[in-house]
Amino acid sequence: MEAVPNLPIGKETIMNPNHQYTSIPKKILLPVDFSASTKPALQMAADLALHFHAELHLVHVIPFFPNTTLPDYVPEEKFHQQAMAHAEHHLDKYKTLLVAKGVKATSSVEIGNDITGSIMEVLEHEKIDMVVISTHGLSGWHPLVFGSIAEKILKLVQCPVLLLHSTQHKEAVKAA
Length: 176
Known about the structure:
Elements: E1 27-31, H1 38-52, E2 55-62, H2 76-101, E3 105-111, H3 115-126, E4 130-135, H4 141-146, H5 149-156, E5 161-165, H6 167-175
Parallel strand pairs: 1-2, 1-4, 2-3, 4-5
Helix pairs in contact: 3-5
């Protein structure tokens, strides 16, 4: 399989069309952000991995430039190290739970501001056959202008995608 060429900034990465997909996934990807929607998505992905005897790969993307304003005395490198340690700790806990259920699990932590692009790179590198991803049900101008990560993934991948609506989405609908 040939590598996907580097694209200029601002271009969306599309999965390599040469990758062949079967109807039974061998490797499932679950992007996690440690929000409330992570646990139900993790349960669904684990159930699918058990059903198909597939490996489950968890991925977390840390923004290269943090969304928060850091004090001057906290260097970005230290922020990334702390964020990486935090992510790896939580992913290890998830993997322990998955292995106890009989699911083969791996994980990776990526750093980059293009979260969708980072996830797409993991899809290619890990030869993913299926994606399980949850929505956050955000409303307002932000997703309207920038689009959601789940929506972008749905448009770009060429393998099956299971899109889960989070409970946060249901609560937002009730409130409206």
